[in-house]
Amino acid sequence: MNTSIQITKDTLEKLKRLKEIIKASTYDDLINELINKAQNIPDTMFGIDKGKIKKISKEDRIAFREY
């Protein structure tokens, strides 16, 4: 889903320059990079538990069902 936001020409020029500096392929990538840096989320944290979390089995669901 695409959307539009209103920004000043000055802000657009700053985003264009920053996009080149960071070498982001899209403005969406640039904005997400800025958000991650603002939230101090290191890239290495994404997918940290990948493969470690097992699927919930039928037995697990039955064992934890409240009666």
Write a brief caption for the model.
The protein is mostly helical and about 70 residues long. The protein has helices spanning about 10-20, 25-40, 60-65.
The geometry reads as elongated
Poorly predicted runs of 5 or more residues: none
Mean pLDDT: 82
User: Structural class, judged by helices and strands?
Assistant: mainly alpha
Number of strands: 0
What portion of residues belong to β-strands? under 5%
N- to C-terminal distance? 42 Å
- What's the domain count? 1
Question: What string gives the helices and strands in order?
Answer: HHH
Percent range of helical residues = 40-55%
- Over all CA atoms, what is the radius of gyration? 21 Å
Major sheet summary line = none
Helical segment count: 3
Q: How is this structure best described in words?
A:
There is one protein chain. The chain is an all-alpha fold and 67 residues long. The chain has one domain. It is 48% helix and 0% strand. The longest helix is centred in the first third of the chain and has 14 residues, at 9-22. It is elongated and about 60 Å long. It starts with 8 loop residues before the first helix and ends with a helix.
